[in-house]
Amino acid sequence: MRTVLRRPDFRLLFAALVASMAAESVLLLALAVWVKDLTGSDSMAGATIFAVIAPMTLAPLVGWVVDRYRRRQFFIAANLVAAVLLGPLLTVRDRSDVWVIYVVAALYGLSYITLTAVLNGLIRHLVPPDLLADANGLLQTVRQGLRLIGPLAGAGVYAAVGGWLLVLLAMTGFLVAAAVVGRLRVEESTPSRPGRRGPSELGAGLRHLTGEPALRRALLGYGLGSLVMGFTESLIFAYVDLGLHRDAAFVGVLVMVQGVGGLVGGLFSAAVVRRFGEVGALAAGVTFFGPAALALAYPRLWLGVVALLLAGLSLPLTMVGLNTLIQRRTPPRLLGRVTAASEALVSGPQALSIGTGALLVGVFDYRLLFALVGAVTTAAGLYLWRGRGLTMPVAGPVRIPAPRKPADDGVLSRGGS
Q1: Which of 37-41, 57-61, 278-282 is predicted most confidently?
Q2: Which spans are transmembrane here (predicted)?
């Protein structure tokens, strides 16, 4: 990671992303707390998270738009727009204004997809292929650290002062990110903008994901695991209440333990990618979630701490493996669409599993459901592990393969990154 930080261009991007991710981390939980405070309703507070996730359905369109513009300029514009979108929150006063929070949450979710799609292309343009895992690992380490303190800090600021200061802090983070990247000097060609066969262009990212063997296996395996991973969002409350016999606030302690595991996973993720390849790192991340869930089926505090450390370790390994694989196996001109499509394919099942888990925990014993999560994620991890040879480290430069049937994509080979 020190090697990639020696690059001045990446240092600027890294500083911008720290500001942007800090803005994200303080805002998400606080929006739900804000709705809960105004309405007193748990379901309306939970609907805030759904509002953030719902724009995932627009991912193909978002990716297509991102691929039509230069990455640096688009990143600056997206952060400026994100800051502006938060402005209406300053008008929220009482329960009648809750709709404003929902609208802003949905627009914020849309901006998150956009920033993720353009970021992969910008990193791919700035960082050599052999340092992509280091760059992604460093960013995941920071993201996990911010997840450890950001949501609690955001909720604390809201409780102490109110939503207005929180909104201003988040807006400042996005504005700083835009200003820092504005100092970045990147030579980019102008992306081609064909005017015909729009539907074909929108589906180009999904076709590339299904046509490239390593990406196809990665999305199938991770998607299978995502179908049940979301169960744990509800199961952890039952584990604390029925298993450990503690107050719901103790969930915050376990989340902090998981955050520590995430920091460790972020620090070692690049080394895992170099040793086992991108699919191997993804397999390790998904597989670690299996024994973690199985351990939570047996309610003992010491075992729960070990399980949450493993669960935290799994997330950065998964994300670094997947992001690095996408960056290395996708032509630059398709990176926006492929990133957005992969985000939708993973987040969609995960959102569905969160809702399903909330229903199932009221019907079945939480220990049985944890065992189910453990079995499915272990199976998904082993499926991915069997395909690790698709991305085993090789000597020489990394080849970026062309998508299947490029003539059908309706785009030219020149790209913006």
Answers
A1: 278-282
A2: 12-35, 47-66, 98-123, 167-186, 219-242, 248-272, 279-298, 304-326, 338-360, 366-385
